[in-house]
Every structure is written in C-alpha cells, then in structure tokens.
Amino acid sequence: MDPSVDPRLLTPGWAGALTLIEAEYIVSQLAISAKLRRLWKIRKRKRYPLQLIAEKAFPQDPAEGRRLMENLLQVRAAARARSQNARLGEKQGVPVSEVDVGPV
C-alpha cells in the first residue's frame, strides 16, 4: 500500500465524499484484492464505476455520493476538453488566447 494513503480510506463508509484520486485509488485496490471486494460487497468486474465506489463510500446518502462523483467526472471531462482545444489551437498556429476553451 502507498505509505502516503491513510489505510482507513479502504474502509467502506469511512471517507464519506471522495475525491477522484481517492476513488481511483480504491478502484485500483479492488481490482487486485478479493478480500477488499468482499468488504465493499462488490463482485469482481472488469471495470469498477467510480459512481458505484462513491455510493459505497458514502453510505449515509448513496445518491449524494453518486451525484458528487458525477459532478467531479464532469469537471474533469470539461478540463480535458479545454486542454485538448488549446492543444489543437497551438497545432494550427492559433495563439492559445484566441482558442475557445470555454469557461474557466
């Protein structure tokens, strides 16, 4: 385990609302540990949706956990799109200040 990560993060319900980094770390551990999957009551899968992890991590209000994670994923997707638009503008010789990167 990464020494900088609090081991309690892998306890369902301990963390509450997760960040993307925390949820992705939990997913990486679920992929390799059958014991952890049993603890989280999640069957083995090829993919573990971050929304599912957020629901299990925030048992007081699973719908709120899912909503918060979906918001984080939308923010990340928007940031990636802005970054990609900026790169495309640079490739075409358009100064980044003139590329429509959307709201910041």
Give an account of the 3D structure.
There is one protein chain. This protein is mainly alpha-helical and 104 residues long. Helices cover 54% and strands 0% of the residues. It has helices at residues 20-30, 34-40, 50-57, 62-91. The longest helix has 30 residues, at 62-91.
How widely separated are the two ends?
35 Å
- What is the chain-wise order of helices and strands? HHHH
Which whole number gives the mean pLDDT?
82
**Structural class per helix/strand content?**
mainly alpha
Low-pLDDT residue intervals, each spanning 5 or more residues: none
The major beta sheet can be summarized as:
none
Percentage of β-strand residues: under 5%
| Number of DSSP E strands | 0
Q: What is the number of helices? A: 4
Gyration radius (Cα, Å) is 18 Å
Q: What is the helix fraction of residues, given as a range?
A: 40-55%
Silhouette: elongated
Question: What brief labels describe this structure?
Answer:
single chain; mainly alpha
In short:
The protein is mostly helical.
Fold blueprint:
Blueprint: H1 20-30, H2 34-40, H3 50-57, H4 62-91
